[in-house]
Amino acid sequence: MSLSRNQSGGVLAALVTIANKTNQKSSYAMRVDFADSAGKAVDTGFVGAGKREPGHKEEPVAFGGQPQGIP
Q1: Residue 5: predicted pLDDT
Q2: DSSP label of 62
Q3: Per-residue pLDDT tens for 17-50?
Q4: Structure pTM?
């Protein structure tokens, strides 16, 4: 789910759900590509979760690096 730039300090941001659906501790790294209305990638962010227990779920925010006003 994307967040408005008013909520994110002027940068692109998205709420990401990371869920460990395995039966052992697992770590995760995710790349989040932000796209414009035409589907063109305009920015990239990264988020991760380390050594999460089975069944654990969290929702970190991935941030892009471009401040508001920069395409």
Answers
A1: 81
A2: E
A3: 999 999 999 999 999 999 989 999 999 999 999 9
A4: 0.78
If we measure between CA atoms, which residue out of 45, 49, 48, 51 comes closest to residue 33? 45
List phi, psi (to 5°) of 56.
-75, 140
| DSSP 8-state code for residue 68 | T
CA pair distance 27, 47, nearest whole angstrom: 11
Q: What is the pLDDT of residue 25?
A: 97
| Distance from the first to the final alpha carbon of the chain | 20
Q: Give the residues across from 32 on adjacent strands.
A: 45
Q: Are the CB atoms for 58 and 20 separated by under 8 Å?
A: no
H/E element, 48: strand 41-52
Rounded CA-CA distance 19/69 in Å is 34
